[in-house]
Amino acid sequence: MKRQNYNFKLSPDEKNRFLAFSQSKGLALGTWLRALMYEAESTGNAGKSVSRELESIRLELSKIGNNINQLAKYFNQIKEPVSFHTHATQEDLLNEQLDELGKLISKTSKKLALVKPSVHRAENKKDDNTNKSN
User: Fold this and answer.
1) 8 Å CB contact between 71 and 93
2) Residue pLDDT, tens place only, 65-113
3) Sorting pLDDT into bands at 50, 70 and 90, what band is 128?
4) Rounded distance between C-alpha atoms, residue 127 and residue 133, angstroms
5) Residue pair 68/129 in contact by the 8 Å Cβ criterion
6) Does residue 102 or residue 20 have the better pLDDT?
7) What top-level class would CATH report for the domain 47-133?
8) d(CA 121, CA 134)
9) Helix, strand or coil, per DSSP, at residue 1
10) What is the CA radius of gyration of the chain?
11) d(CA 87, CA 55)
12) Is the distance from CB of 114 to CB of 21 less than 8 angstroms?
């Protein structure tokens, strides 16, 4: 079966970003784009899961932040020395929360790097549509 070409337009910035990303992964641009389409087809997702994942990460970051604030408040209110066992337990809990926060920040940064171009395009499209209707 003979392969067919499919043409679509990209801005120069999109082309440069997509090309640089695909090359950084050792893939030709067409190979990378086909892989994305196969993934979307097999999962039924065309990018919507990323926004849900980011919302989930935001909620987790909020929970961890609240836990860290509670621990900080607790330590700041202590008037007398804390026994070694209690202090070690609280310190371990704080370190665990900080580790989780670091992991989520890293995960969020990676997701945002992938989503940012799409969000930017969507915002520009929304602005364009608003300007046209005014």
Assistant:
1) yes
2) 888 888 888 877 776 665 555 556 777 777 888 888 888 888 777 777 7
3) low
4) 10
5) no
6) 20
7) mainly alpha
8) 20
9) coil
10) 23
11) 34
12) no
Measure Cα distances from 127 to 99, 122, 124 in Å. Answer: 39, 9, 5
Quote the pTM value: 0.38
CB within 8 Å of 25: residues ≥ 6 apart: 32
* Amino acid sitting at position 46: A
Q: Is 79 helix (H, G, I), strand (E, B) or coil?
A: coil
User: How far is it, in rounded angstroms, from Cα 30 to Cα 52?
Assistant: 27
Find out whether 49 and 93 touch, Cβ atoms under 8 Å: no
What is the rounded distance in angstroms from the CA atom of residue 32 to the CA atom of residue 40? Answer: 12
- Is residue 129 scored above 60 in pLDDT? no
Q: Let me know: does 104 contact 57? Beta carbons within 8 Å.
A: yes
Tokens of 81: 């020395």
